[in-house]
Amino acid sequence: MKRATVSLLKDREKPVRQQHPWVFSGAIGKVNGAENGDIVTLTDHRGAFLARGYYNARSQIQVRLLTWQDEVIDEAWWRARLRRALQARAYLLAQGHTGVRLVNAENDFLAGLVADLYGQFIVVQALTLGIDQRKRELARWLAETFNALYPQQPVLGVYERSVADVRGKEGLRDAAGVLWGDEPPEELWVREHGRAFCVDVRHGHKTGFYLDQRDNRQQLADLLLQFADRPFSVLNLFSYTGGFGVAALDAVRPHAQAAQCRIVHVDSSQEALRLAQRNSERSSADMPAPPQVAFVAADSFAFLRAAQQDGDAFDVIVCDPPKFAHNQGQVEKAARGYKDLNLNAFKLVKAGGYLMTFSCSGAVSRDLFQKIVFGALADSGRQGQIVRQLSAGDDHPIALTFPEGEYLKGLLVRVY
Q1: Residue 269 pLDDT > 50
Q2: In CATH, what class is 210-415?
Q3: N or C: where does the chain have the smaller number of CB atoms within 10 Å of the terminal CB?
Q4: pLDDT tens for residues 176-206?
């Protein structure tokens, strides 16, 4: 049987040779024998082998590359690639983290596949047609590979939560349900750095939780230890289920004036705040004098303005908004949103306090985000120092050949 091939136009192979995983429609010359979802061999305009991946004529990214070696992509190949990704997370699992990203799509050289571990269940996202057509097999291979590597903590089921805008661009609808094994319970509890978090994999954002912020939550807990000599206040904007607030509680725990400390969660979702309250109550249940913790259902932009009018201020503000720019065409509007948000946040930080601010818009580069935050600082009339550049945790690696993979970027700024 003749193999399906896709050939590039002349002088369009440079990104492929540099192992970028995306081939856009404008670079393609001919398509021979390929149906949507098929594994195809990519060649240059002369027919010389370049790479292999899967094809989808419905998408602007028509070929997503899996390998640059002339090798067969079969069950053994998939299992080997999954095993490599799982082995790379071994040290995180050994540290007791039970919420871990196991497969990070293109950055783990498995384009279109995301897999997150929550306790004894894996939640996957099939973001592309090529992965969607193979998702049941991939779920089984993923579970079997994980259980072979980590028999002391076997997964019981693999659940799909393929809810993402990119699926529409692939000609797919959202999908959810069990792909392998048992169905997960309504709520799962996971642990990171010894802290417990309740996760709703059916209705929560992404696959249920922001696993990418694990190290930054720990950074906040460490940062707050410097306020041991006086009560402190933390504002957690776009709080979702309160992850940063739970980390802040760890800093409150040994504080001599714990009852005078204050943590405020702000989110527009009542359901998210309900889980945030559960997480907070569980973490503070054994504290003899818990801090003041508030859960405010409000738009974060409006909350900042109202807090200024009330004369409020905070020692630390965490600002982790949802994605403002889904593509390059939305970057300018997103930049205005980020500037307004950070401008008003700077105005509420006490002198000597901190702003921990993030962007998860992949279309907004780290350099651009820093310039936006600088502009906000300048307009606020404050002074600031970058204490640390922030990014996703180790289980969210970025392929050197795929800079688009760095979607989460952040700054820890000391404000005067």
Answers
A1: yes
A2: alpha beta
A3: N
A4: 999 999 999 988 999 999 999 999 999 999 9
CATH 3.40.50.150 domain span(s) along the chain: 210-415
Backbone torsion region of residue 121, taken as left when φ is above 0, otherwise alpha when ψ lies between -120 and 50, otherwise beta = beta
What does the pLDDT read at residue 64? 98
Written as six digits, the tokens of 287 are 């504290």
End-to-end Cα separation, the chain, in angstroms: 70
Q: Where in the chain is the domain with CATH 2.30.130.10?
A: 5-67
Q: How far apart are CA 240 and CA 272, in angstroms?
A: 5
- pLDDT, residue 2, reads 59
**Catalytic annotation, residues:** 360
Kindly report, residue by residue over 376-399, the tens digit of the pLDDT.
999 999 999 999 999 999 999 999
Q: Look up the CATH number of domain 75-187.
A: 3.30.750.80
Q: How confident is the model at residue 1 (pLDDT cuts 50, 70, 90)?
A: very low
How are strands ordered across the β-sheet holding 157-162? 99-104, 113-118, 121-126, 157-162, 175-181
Q: Which of 175, 177, 171 is nearest to 163 (CA)?
A: 175
Alpha helices by DSSP H, listed for 183-269, are 214-224, 243-252
Query: E strand or H helix at 67, and its extent?
Result: strand 61-67
Any residues with CB less than 8 A from the CB of 414 and at least 6 apart, and which? 352, 353, 354, 384, 385, 387
